[in-house]
Amino acid sequence: MKLPVYLGLLREAERVLAESFRQVADGHAAEPDVHFLSHTLAQQCLAHYEALDPIVQRYGEARQEDEPERLHAEGLGRIRSGPVGLLRDLQDVYMLASVVEITWKLVGQAAEALRDRELLELVARCHKETSTHLDWLKTRMEQTAPQALIAAQ
Amino acid sequence: MIDRIAEVWGTRTPYEQDQRWPVRVDQKLAEGVGDDDVDRWVQSACVLCSNGCGCDIAVKDGRMVGVRGRATDIVNHGRLGPKGLFGSWQGVDNKDRLTRPLVRENGRLVATDWDTAMQRVVDNSRRLLQEKGPLSHGFYTSGQLFLEEYYTLSVVGKAGIRTPHMDGNTRLCTATAAASMKESFGSDGQPGSYVDIDECDAIFLYGHNMAETQTVLWMRVLDRLAGQNPPKVVCVDPRETEVARHADVHLPVRNGTNQALMNGLVREVIVNGWMDEDYVAAHTLHFDELRDVVEPWTPERVAEVCGVDADDVRRTAEIFGTTERVLSTVLQGFYQSHQATAASCNVNNLHLLRGLLGRPGCGILQMNGQPTAQNTRETGADGDLPGFRNWGNTDHVAELARVWNVDPLDIPSWAPPTHAMQIFRYAEQGSINFLWVQATNPAVSLPELARIRELLHREELFLVVQDLYLTETAQLADVVLPAAAWGEKTGTFTNVNRTVHLSDKAVEPPGEARSDLDIFLDYAHRMDFRDRDGNPLVPWSDPEGAFHAWRECTRGRPCDYTGLSYERFRGGSGIPWPCNDEHPDGTVRLYEDGVFPTDPDYCETYGHDLVTGAVVGEQAYRAMNPAGRALLKAAPYQPPHEEPDEDYPLRYTSGRTVYHWHTRTKTGRAEPLDRAAPQAWVELAEEDAERLGVIEGDIVRVASRRGEIVVAARIGRGRQGVVFAPFHYGYWDTDGVGPGEHPRSANELTITEWDPVSKQPVYKVAAVRVDKVATGDGPAPAPTTAASRPARPGTVRPTVGGSEAMADERIAPVEPPAVATREEHP
């Protein structure tokens, strides 16, 4: 069974996403909405990470060589500055959050097939929150893109 | 005659439930002017709060010399508050008025003519449009202009300049009222009516110090309380306001915990079976989600987080849950806190759960702060699309483009409109270089003033300020345009409960001052804005022409004005919209049939996630199939982002006093009002003062992470651990633009943060510390008549007005008026 591989992937992606939200929050502290919301969302990601623990324990940790792909969810690295920098950073976080969102979706499919009620409940909650992360990132980027791309210095 | 500074609410005229509120005509004439001396009375309505009291202006020899309430007006039944009596004409007939345009030359503002000033505005507009395009322009307007002016501004900004950067100071006062109604009901539009005060069995005031912010509305409540079958009163406010003193239950919640309380109240109504299940099933969506979100909020948990008694929470919920007719009102305590929209939506939720809407005595008043804020919202001068159209709906944009005869692509609608705090951020970052501010004073009223002053000061920002006086903001401007005031121009405006009034011109403006409408028309003309056929984009040339154009713009929308006209207003009362063929006398209450404007093709918004402000989007919204049902929107409680800690151990909140309006540009120049509250102060709870070794009148420094103020302390009756400062005091009458040696403006301390949905700044949640810096030489200059009353009565001389504050009251000279007669009594 390869589900443990996906659970490990998901848990790691949530950790990286939390870290990235925190970086954006601190790196763009002059944008209060980005600052406060990114901290809130980072906490949600960490909560997802922790909530996965008992599930991972139950299914067992995956072995390193079982990883099905080469695409690692990597964090932001260094934060950018300025209006376009903010846009690019949010876009990077959006990509990370997309990985998290689709992974929850796929884990949820497996949970359905396994009739794992505990995992299904967790997926329902976390997938919804992650979708909201994407919605917010999209809303914020769409709002700011014209200004950053046309009018900013 | 009665001293209306000392007796803020005047003489009681008690009345019973379901009776009409008796008439009491309040009048104030200038010293030495008698009734017989008045040449003529000119019809108007008061602009010194959002209540919208009908009044007449006395004119003698071409000057305003008095004011009286209109006995026949459905809003105030003849009454006026202290600000209306003493600060209306007195606040504008003043030697300090701007009488000529000013332009900045070699760093100084110098007087000039209109041609020079407007040419400078137009030259900068054209240059920036060419260099950077429309996104270089921002407009920051007010809740003080008239409907016709906002609508003209809206067309100029959206289809002339084509910028999405338009907002008003309504963002600071009323944005959450609009946002909460949009989220719950699909569109802006006040469900209730003031008449509901006459009919209710209980009235809930959420963060609403009505006694000071809408004195005439509070008179109506006081008169009910003095009559037979008085309503129960519930007050949610950390301060012991006049409302709290009259309350059956006062919940002095810690500021920053509103959503915890509201989740608890919703939960109580659900678990005790006080819901109207049929109504919920037929007329709402998302009940299960709401139930799940509020589930953890037992009265005990609410008590712990909010710092109130669990039994009081139960009692409050029981009053709400078991009383037949309940009216709720909401204002800044909710709107200017974090989770503003979520908490205000929960008020809507409570009413939806019990079906307490659209029936006599069962209303919601999501209050406005300012007299014409409703029009800022309706016309889209706050960035929204005019007529409560949905920027996310391409058909709505196309419809608007047809009304204006422009290409739909000309109307910026690619994203939500840019809210005020973001406009100022873009100015700070240098991507907005042209900012036109009208009738508002951001250098005193926005949060974190040091930052605001700095960004307004910037060389690369071309700042135009249009105002009555040389405000703190005007002193930073590149061009200052002198505007005509209330009484010096004609126009309409709409109050909290949708009542539209006409305010006629009584006198000529001073010097070369011009109406805001004429200034916008002049700009449109000079910029040569054209529609798609090459005709002038703004074809009207006077207020009535603008009103006619606006009427067409509202056809078929929730705020339908098509049945209204200047002629219908003259001689009578205000009329509440919608007013059209279906409702020829206007409309008392919305949603009588439980059908809400949530239809995807009709709604003003597809909604937002209340925690993040993420837009829901058309597809997801259509998938919900709202079909005229209201939305029960839920959000978990989140603690405020700045809570007390070791360095800043106290909770800070800012607010209003009954005697002042905004940044005192008018009321600070009206003698009786100014004398009643001449100087800034800060209120400390007795227990905190004792611990700090501070007694009444001592000078204290209040510091936050953003700045500090040094003012006298009033030892008041607020909640322990909470510090309050009035936000009215800036520096125009002390050091000019900024604090200099004497910082006193409440917004030196506030935090730059806003609600994720309404984008209303958070003025009521921050952390501060207080230190005594000097012994006082007498009591603090705070009034004793309302919430700032001293903890120990008798230790401070009572606030009185004296001879200048004497006003007439005529009790019950005529029968009370009825609102929308044919609708109420077909």
TrEMBL record, chain A:
<protein>
    <recommendedName>
        <fullName>Ferritin-like metal-binding protein YciE</fullName>
    </recommendedName>
</protein>
Automatic annotation (TrEMBL), chain B:
<keyword id="KW-0408">Iron</keyword>
<feature type="region of interest" description="Disordered">
    <location>
        <begin position="774"/>
        <end position="826"/>
    </location>
</feature>
<dbReference type="Pfam" id="PF00384">
    <property type="entry name" value="Molybdopterin"/>
</dbReference>
<protein>
    <submittedName>
        <fullName>Anaerobic selenocysteine-containing dehydrogenase</fullName>
    </submittedName>
</protein>
<keyword id="KW-0500">Molybdenum</keyword>
<dbReference type="InterPro" id="IPR041957">
    <property type="entry name" value="CT_Nitrate-R-NapA-like"/>
</dbReference>
<keyword id="KW-0560">Oxidoreductase</keyword>
<dbReference type="InterPro" id="IPR050123">
    <property type="entry name" value="Prok_molybdopt-oxidoreductase"/>
</dbReference>
<dbReference type="Pfam" id="PF01568">
    <property type="entry name" value="Molydop_binding"/>
</dbReference>
<dbReference type="GO" id="GO:0043546">
    <property type="term" value="F:molybdopterin cofactor binding"/>
</dbReference>
<feature type="domain" description="4Fe-4S Mo/W bis-MGD-type">
    <location>
        <begin position="39"/>
        <end position="95"/>
    </location>
</feature>
<comment type="similarity">
    <text>Belongs to the prokaryotic molybdopterin-containing oxidoreductase family. NasA/NapA/NarB subfamily.</text>
</comment>
<dbReference type="Pfam" id="PF04879">
    <property type="entry name" value="Molybdop_Fe4S4"/>
</dbReference>
<keyword id="KW-0479">Metal-binding</keyword>
<dbReference type="InterPro" id="IPR006657">
    <property type="entry name" value="MoPterin_dinucl-bd_dom"/>
</dbReference>
<keyword id="KW-0534">Nitrate assimilation</keyword>
<dbReference type="InterPro" id="IPR006963">
    <property type="entry name" value="Mopterin_OxRdtase_4Fe-4S_dom"/>
</dbReference>
<dbReference type="InterPro" id="IPR009010">
    <property type="entry name" value="Asp_de-COase-like_dom_sf"/>
</dbReference>
<dbReference type="InterPro" id="IPR006655">
    <property type="entry name" value="Mopterin_OxRdtase_prok_CS"/>
</dbReference>
<feature type="compositionally biased region" description="Low complexity">
    <location>
        <begin position="775"/>
        <end position="795"/>
    </location>
</feature>
<dbReference type="GO" id="GO:0046872">
    <property type="term" value="F:metal ion binding"/>
</dbReference>
<dbReference type="GO" id="GO:0042128">
    <property type="term" value="P:nitrate assimilation"/>
</dbReference>
